[in-house]
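Sorry to interrupt, but I need a hand with the structure work. Can you supply me with one protein entry, sequence and fold together? No commentary is needed, just the two lines. Leave the record below and I will have a look.
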Amino acid sequence: MKRITEYLVGLLFGMGLIISGMANPEKVLGFLDITGTWDPSLAFVMGGGILVGLFAFTAAKKRQTACLGDPMSLPSSTSITPRLLIGSLLFGIGWGLAGICPGPALVSMAAGEWKALLFVIAMVAGMAVFTAYENRKTPKTP
């Protein structure tokens, strides 16, 4: 039952991306084009997400387990590190160049968009490089 619920929540998220137009890179690039024909609709989608997240995280802080029964695991760090800033910058640059981020990329890929497939392949390759770097940097314990 847990997997079915996870699937349905993911499906709901994907449908929200499609309905809002956020799976369309042109919509995202229109938001980022502040000197041309600016499209503010992404700001409303982000605002809605921030509002829902605000309430969800406030409620989550009071819980010991997640809604599906797993232990609650919230971030404990509140510091802004160079690593966070560099990662955010790289994410933003990639988002701005492609007009797509990971969630919408998966939705678009499932819809048969070949550009989204290339994006997902590049994203997975970047994750693999990061994992290899982290594993090389972190000493192994016996």
Summary: Residues 2-137 form one domain. The chain has a mean pLDDT of 86.
